[in-house]
Amino acid sequence: MLELTMAAVSAADAGATAGMLMADAPSDPGAVLRLGRDKSVCRLSTPDDWLFISRVHLEFLCGPDGTWQVTWLQGSQPDPSSEVRLTVGEYAQPLSYGGTAPLPRGGSGEIIIQDRTAPRSVNVGFYHEV
């Protein structure tokens, strides 16, 4: 099972936990969770006017062996207006636009989508339960 917790944070409410959204999916091959502005396909959706987030920004996909990966899907713009960072423990790495990274089996961490033009972010905590 992959559990996700999302908080949309602006400078005005930094540190607040109100408005957190949660989603989970069993670790079955082909299971998918998506994050973005399009509420019709994304289990975790951000405010419509947060244009630094694509309609479908991140996709979490369970592979044939029950492990999960996250992909930053390329949107309609050639140059993104956000940065995505994956943190597991003390280790942090940027996720490239269009790139994919594995999530640790039985581990937890955080993915931060940072707006390049304003002090706001989307913080996604994840926990992979085995």
Walk me through what this model shows.
It is a single chain. The protein is an all-beta fold and 130 residues long. The chain has no helices and 11 strands. It has strands at 2-10, 21-25, 32-36, 44-45, 58-62, 68-72, 82-88, 91-95, 100-102, 108-115, 120-128.
Question: Any key phrases for this structure?
Answer:
130 residues; mainly beta; five-stranded mixed beta sheet; 11 strands; 48% strand; globular
Summarize the structure.
With 130 residues, this protein is mainly β. The chain is 0% helix and 48% strand.
**Rounded radius of gyration (Å):** 14 Å
Give, in order, the helices and strands.
Answer: EEEEEEEEEEE
Average the pLDDT over all residues and give the rounded result: 91
What is the distance, rounded to the nearest whole angstrom, between the alpha carbons of the first and last residues? Answer: 7 Å
| Helix-residue proportion | under 10%
Layout of secondary structure:
Elements: E1 2-10, E2 21-25, E3 32-36, E4 44-45, E5 58-62, E6 68-72, E7 82-88, E8 91-95, E9 100-102, E10 108-115, E11 120-128
Parallel strand pairs: 3-4
Antiparallel strand pairs: 1-2, 1-11, 3-5, 5-6, 6-9, 7-8, 7-10, 10-11
